[in-house]
């Protein structure tokens, strides 16, 4: 928590233009304007995206009963992107709302299909399942690229490929606030997700409506993923590694782990964003690159050290 | 009382449970026995509503289990399937607390906590209540799941092969606990068992299935004899009596082709 606050403050005062806290005393100054239009929205976007993607991953891991399933490894992100593309092809001048709706519908549908595939396969190995998810995601992705190529929209698609907070300024990120009620809902239903995570039989024994909880969880995941993809872009690994790290030291009781997962997700993303902004100052590296580099390293460590635990 | 009335279940063309009718007597241990593929687990799943029957019905207190609301049903009947929940990291206490879910929906009252404490005490788990399930031995883990069912405080406890993967000592521990649940707490236990001798020594009644059909249903002493066992298992099994227990010595029996 403390780390999050410290990093937030650091994040506010890092950037191409030097802003000192004292500059903010002058309400009219350029610095204050930049601060309010660019820095604050950026911080909010990082917090919401970091918390959101981590929670989305946590819910997916619980419901699929597999530690390595996340929006990245279950096709959710790819389906969301396909949705955006379809909306752009169907309506030549797709409004933002149309994009949101299409992207959400596809993300939800794409995840449901993955869960159906998961239901059917008998060999539920901890590594095998996410591999299927990644293949499935790549199929969706290649469909997107194919139609994007046909419709000359490849440029647009690649901008959603890349997660970056560079373009986040006031007026362009507010959709992310939709993730707030979704996260709250996730917390309210935390116990139900834990019970559902023990399996359908287990949930039914306790009188829990398994299907309802499953669908609610997938909806929450789709809402969060959609809002993040449309405002920030694809941030890989976040939903994968953050919940796993928390699970290692706190277990899988979601009521207990959700706050920690959110906090760690935010801290992790803040660190990655700050690194991205510092190394090539005054330019910056898109956050998905730093997340991918640091994230894949952590992911490998989890894989090698945690194989026994993931099973 | 639980009454099973003409239950049938098909998977594709195969009839797994075929027109089975039986009654579960309250305050007894009833064992479901039979060869592989006899339909024991499927029958248990239908009794506990995990599976829907194709035809027939299960009555709990004269009301079809389909008509029970799920949270009220969860306060009357609990089921533990063969446990392979190894990938969920919960502490023993957290798991047992979920037994109170039908009552409190996850927000434990003081009364719920008392039930949890008692269940942990009863299963001798108080010392390890804060350990994660995946750090426990198979026997401890099985005890934790039974503690959860005790906290759930249902009249009927259904268990699907709870002795799977347990060594002799832990198997005996579990069976003794089930006996105590019936004798001391007045529970009704229905259990799918593979080992005929555990069924013989610990259960009051036995329901024997073969190829989905009910072959025998009666008090244990009526089933554990060479003639009845031959019908169930196609084997000539001599029975030896030892300290009042009837032991089936099947290890070198002659087996008939069926």
UniProtKB/TrEMBL annotation, chain B:
Record InterPro entries: AAA+_ATPase (IPR003593), ABC_transporter-like_ATP-bd (IPR003439), ABC_transporter-like_CS (IPR017871), P-loop_NTPase (IPR027417), Siderophore_ABC-ATPase (IPR051535)
This protein's UniProt keywords: ATP-binding, Cell membrane, Ion transport, Iron, Iron transport, Membrane, Nucleotide-binding, Transport
A molecular function (GO) term: ATP binding
Residue ranges of domain ABC transporter in the record: 2-236
Subcellular location(s) of the protein: Cell membrane
Domain of life: Bacteria
Family annotation (Pfam families): ABC_tran (PF00005)
Record lineage: Bacteria, Bacillati, Bacillota, Bacilli, Bacillales
SMART domains per record: AAA
Organism (species): Pallidibacillus pasinlerensis
Main location as per UniProt: membrane
Protein known as: ABC transporter ATP-binding protein
Membrane topology term: Peripheral membrane protein
